[in-house]
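call fold(seq) -> C-alpha cells
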Amino acid sequence: MTTTSPTIYYIIGAIVLVAIIVAVVVSARKQRSARLQRRFGPEYERTARQYGDRARAEQELADREARVRKFRLEELPAGARERYSDEWLQVQQRFVDEPKAALAKADALLTNVMRDRGYPIVNFEQRAADLSPDHATVVQDYRAAHEISLRSETGDVTTEELRQAMLHYRTLFADLVGNDEVRKQ
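ret:
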C-alpha cells in the first residue's frame, strides 16, 4: 500500500481552485454581456460592429453608463413639456411647406430638450452616445434622422426620406419629453 504525498493534494486543490475562479470569471463576463445586450438593444450590435470586437464594444457601453450616471438628468416640468409639445406641433405643421427647414428646427428642438433634461450638448456622436444608456430603443432613430438631415443640406434626399427623418425625430422627442400625445400623432 502506497501513501500519497500531501503535495499531490495541494496540486489537485490548486487546480480545482483555478477551475472555480475561471468558471466565475467566465460566468460574470457572460452576465455582463447579457445585461448590456438587454439594456442597449440594437445599439449594442451597432457598437460591436463599429469596434469590431465585443470586449472593446462592451467596455465602451459600460463607459457610457458610467458617464451618464454622473449627469444630473431630470424629467421636464409640466410647463416645459407643454411648451415643447406646442413647439413640436409647429415644427410638424411647418414640414408641409418647408420640409428641410422643419427638419433642421426639429433637430434644434431636440437639442434644447436634451439640454433642459441635463444632457451636455457636444457633438452629435457624443449626444447619441449619452442618450444610448437610457434611450437605447430610440437612439437608432436619432442616428437615422441625423444622417438624413445631413444629406438634406446637400439636397440629396427625397420628401419621403425627410418625412421618415421627422418620424424618427418624433420618436425620440416623445421619449425625452414623456408626452404620449406626441407618440400618437
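Residues 32 and 58 are 8 Å apart (CA to CA).
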